[in-house]
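Notes continue from the previous slide.

Worked example: a multi-chain complex. Inputs as given:
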Amino acid sequence: MDLTLKIWRQANTKAKGKMVDYKVTGVSPDSSFFEMLDVLNQSIIEEGGDPVAFDHDCREGICGTCSLYINGRPHGPDSGITTCQLHMRKFKSGDTIYIEPWRAKAFPIIKDLIVNRGAYDEIIQAGGYISVNTGGVPDANAIPIPKVDSDTAMDAASCIGCGACVATCKNASAMLFVAAKVSQFAHLPQGKIEAKRRVQNMVATMDELGFGNCSNTYACEQECPKEISVSHIAKMNREFFAAKLCADVKDI
Amino acid sequence: MSNSLLKYASITQKISMSLLGLFLASFLLVHLTINLMLMLPDGGESFRAAAEFMGTNPFIMVFEYVLFAAFFVHIVLGIILWMQNNQARPVAYAKANVSETSFFSKYMIHTGVIIMLFLFLHFVHFYFAKIGLVDASATYMFEGHEHPDFYTMAIELLKQPLYAVIYILSFLALGFHLNHAIQSGFQSLGLEHSKYTPAIKSISTIFALIVAVGFSIIPVFFLIQG
Amino acid sequence: MIKLESKIPEGKMADKWTNYIDHAKLVNPSNKRKLDIIIVGTGLAGASAASSLGEMGYKVKVFCYQDSSRRAHSIAAQGGINAAKNYPNDGDSVYRLFYDTVKGGDYRAREANVYRLAEVSNSIIDQGVAQGIPFARDYGGLLDNRSFGGAQVSRTFYARGQTGQQLLLGAYSALSRSIKNGQVELFSRRDMLDVVKIDGRARGIIVRNLVTGELEKHAGHAVVLATGGYGNVFYLSTNAMGSNASPVWQAHKRGAAFANASFVQIHPTCIPVHGDFQSKLTLMSESLRNDGRIWVPKHKKDAEAIQAGKLKPTAIKEEDRDYYLERRYPAFGNLVPRDVASRAAKERCDAGYGVGLGTGLAVYLDFSEAIGRLGKSVVEARYGNLFQMYEKIVDDNPYETPMMIYPAIHYSMGGLWVDYNLMTTIPGLYAIGEANFSDHGANRLGASALMQGLADGYFVLPYTIADYLSDQIHVPRFTGDEKEFNEVLGEVKGKIDKLMNIKGTKSVDSFHKELGHIMWENVGMARNEEGLKKALTEIPKLREEFWKDVKIPGDTAEYNTELEKAGRVADFLELGELMARDALNRTESCGGHFREESATEEGEAKRDDVNFAYVAAWEYKGENVAQELHKENLEFEAIKLVQRNYK
């Protein structure tokens, strides 16, 4: 396969970036998208240029590191996968492929296609945990949990924190990411104890970091590599509403 | 901190939008019922009676201000949210987003602005006459007083093809707005359930159809009637 | 000259850890505040250790090369985590888990460590549930278990096919809480490049900020390495692209003994290699072997037709299929330990019965029988995400045609030598999780890596590190401005400048690929003297070439992925040689280490307990000088040594 790539190049956070054209030839349809970029980078290095920087690590769709916005879709033209799971058979020879970084005020660009998603960590630090210390916890089977609740919590917990939801949202909203964590714990008895302060603190942090608001366009659900449902956003809204209405003023 | 504009959390703003929007939507049904009376072959008797009731009932008169406030806050909040959302992505993508989403969910601010402009026109035509800010173009005598004749005014307006087109387009926009708004309102309020949400989505579309079609047939009716 | 003191506590096997806890020295809360601990790595071991030590009151600094601590490669573990809970009432116990682990490791692990691991395993599950990890449950609301290779009980807890992810996110959430509370400070996108010793004790590290390229000095009273394994020495492995051995290798060069370097695990169920440009191998969870049946054609002509793309596996009749694991190992069948399953696959493929298109390097993992027995929906519920993953990569539907699998490098049992306290031979330097030579002996059982990482981090290190720190309470905080820091910083800078100034012609990846090729061919699944000696001459040659001809574009003071990779490959080029040396020294076959010279008549691995019941700990002796071997003899009190038998 022969392809034309239009790739965002930006030296560092402060530099001005631009789209640059590249040609790659002889790409196997069975190779992964990153293997195609590896080939491109090898040829850039051979020519003495600066290879394209992009984030990637596990290359099996679970670490959430990879973050490419390909032809107008986060993680490219396939559903339920991350960029590293995207294979070239999804393209045709002669195609032009746009490759851009996640675009959001809360995710500043570090270099080329690499963005800083530290905002996600900050949101989790605001309450994405159950406050137990190591040791001194009850036996694992001391807390029975209905299977359906546990399964729903697992659906939410499968979030890999990649940022595709923010990237595709027209408002760069992080609602699906935050909701996945809030909803996971809201479905579990262990998580209910600090549920009210959790949802209020996490939402407040999300807002402070400059993410947009949710318009219920549901693009996030479409593009989530783990296909996390927007019903978790509704769950978070419900949790938030209840907490704002009913929580003790001290419960924050 | 985009939210320092208003010290309320994003979700609080969304919940407010939803509650106000759903309230406004319920008012639409009342308005539609009255408007449909225009087409009754009773020379405007029912319509005038309804208009009279709406204009004089003390409860409704108070309610009117609540309604205006709801409109105002809904619109202002919508604009604030839109501004915040724009700030959240300062650099646009070179290749526009092609993710599959419900089409009209992305254009709420646009359909909203169309509705707002129509609302303004509507005020100029009717409400300003009602409160005496401008002279009514037609009047009738009721219980010894001269009253603005909304029946005649409405029919005359609707018979103008240009106004009829604006009217229909506006309600089309409203239909699109509502199609997303109703179910979206439920989602923002957290009223989501695996059993009921599909029904809510259907109701949302049906409601939008009723409003858009219901209002739009009135000018069509009068244009055909000549 | 290093001395190996295992420091195993006195007492009966079952009492050792309790005795240890009862008598270990403690640090009082007001003193904990004065002690700094550096932890490198935020996988299961690193994150759990950092959060636990932070909660206890120590000042912790934690480092990772990823953009977020949530992305460490522990996240990729799929199948599950073992614990001796005996919830299914099938006869499990701490002793049995201990026994299975020692046996699975082919009797090359330290008994006392393994017993402790089995003892604390149950607490991990309790901790995970308390953290809100959504483990699989039954309709009664209680936890579900599945069976796994190398065991006859169901002791594996799981969260769909994402157990590693869920456990890591649990540890990450605890870590996030500690960060929020100010007990732990996180430094992401940092590569650790060296250890700093003061008066013989580990007192800090040098890291490179991957974004700015700046070198930073970080000091502490103790340093903990939780940096994972070194499977990437083979270039193609199931490890993450960034997984590297540089921290442990630098520690080794500063005096930490490196143990059992040749013990790497080859996982039997990976998606086969498809081409030269391939960058990474994808693992399919071992849990698939619970219901999948492994086979190759019985007749060579069928295999050849499949390799040529002329025959579909579904066209091969039942009687023409060779379910070779069930045939050779009737007792364990498809659930034999990983090393046994991997070698059996290689044996079939080498004999010409493999089914990979064009390569012949694959065997079938067939679910048709399971789908018939359980129904498609049950199979989908159990393995749906794995099937989907397979289909995305291979473009083939495993519900209809059997999956193709082949072994791939997956885990390293070898690592830094540690004593019972998990301390290396450098005082104050600890290694936990996959980074140490660990509890898995010569082969790790499935679902035990998660168990070990978390055991070390949550329940072992927090106790054992206090034993060391208790006499450090009078040592004032280090600032990082001590002369030793500046010396090491200078050396690190020198090495980076040297790399940048080579300005050769070949990319880092091309050297890495070549090294991987040498390793896979000679230090891979089956090893012999000739191949190992060949590796011992080829690797130094390649290393020499690397230092003459590698090409690194860009600058040091910027985000430079090629420079990052170059540093890692430079270390792999040294580590690979040690692996070959260790493999050459160990003329027996054991676990993942198979010496062709040491096999039974049936081709099974033959251990040599008389000569090799020891841990081979290697001491660094300088550039281009062979390491010196030290032996820690393994005493077996609780378990009798027998030849492993899964038949």
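Summary box: The two ends of chain C are 45 Å apart (CA to CA). Chain C is about 35% helix and 15% strand.
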